[in-house]
Amino acid sequence: MKKAIIWLLAITVILAALLWGPIMSNVEQARYDVFETHGAIEIRDYAPMIVAEVSVTGDREKAISDGFRLIADYIFGNNISSQEVAMTAPVIQQPSEKIAMTAPVIQQGDKGLWVVRFVMPSAYTMQTLPKPNNSEVVLKQIAGKRYAVIRFSGLARTKSLEAHTNELEAFILENNLQTVSKPTYAFFNPPWTLPLLRRNEVMIEINR
To answer: What pairs with residue 92 in β-bridges?
Structure first.
């Protein structure tokens, strides 16, 4: 009897671990329409959105951790209204466009600069969102854009991101699409989500 109870508890814990990440990921997501689908690659038209963003330095994984912490602090109440803002998905990370203009400095070994963004819930406007107390957190209106996007699961390590970026760039080249931005990374799940159940994306803005 005791063994049966122990096994039941173990199975319950395993199922909770399997489901907790996807359940916590069931939040409002950035709105888009799918224009075309090519296997794991989609051409999407994104609606205008408001984001909260920070610029952070360091390697990619440290940068997204630091950026996540700063913006999470804002949405959990560190703002002039002490108001909580609902979590959405994805968390977006991209190299700063300003750094792209100083590539020789990067090649000389200086740490990179990354922009980390949270998409704000669609119910808000720039006027109704609470203003951040931390000046590092900036609210910004983003126009509607078209992206080529590749989706994949697993851990979003550097090698995996590079491999999927290369696949997406090859697709863009083969289809004579014109890129507008550098690759952007999008992460949809909390860190405790099992790798098989994670949703990661590489996005590159293209001309309509």
So the answer is: 117, 186
CATH architecture assigned to 1-48+143-208: 2-Layer Sandwich (3.30)
Give residue 100's identity as a one-letter amino acid code.
A
Give residue-wise pLDDT tens across range 18-42. 444 444 445 788 899 999 999 999 9
**Residue range(s) of every CATH 3.20.80.10 domain in the chain:** 49-142
Greatest Cα pair distance, the chain, in angstroms, is 68
The parts of the chain modelled with pLDDT lower than 70 are 1-26, 96-111
Is 97 within 8 Å of 182 (Cβ atoms)? Answer: yes
Q: What kind of architecture, by CATH, is found in domain 49-142?
A: Alpha-Beta Barrel (3.20)
Please name the residues in contact with 150: beta carbons below 8 A apart, sequence gap of 6 or more. 40, 41, 164, 167, 168, 171, 201, 202
Nearest by Cα to 22 from 70, 89, 75, 118: 89
Taking only the tens place, the pLDDT of each residue in 91-107 is 889 886 433 332 222 22
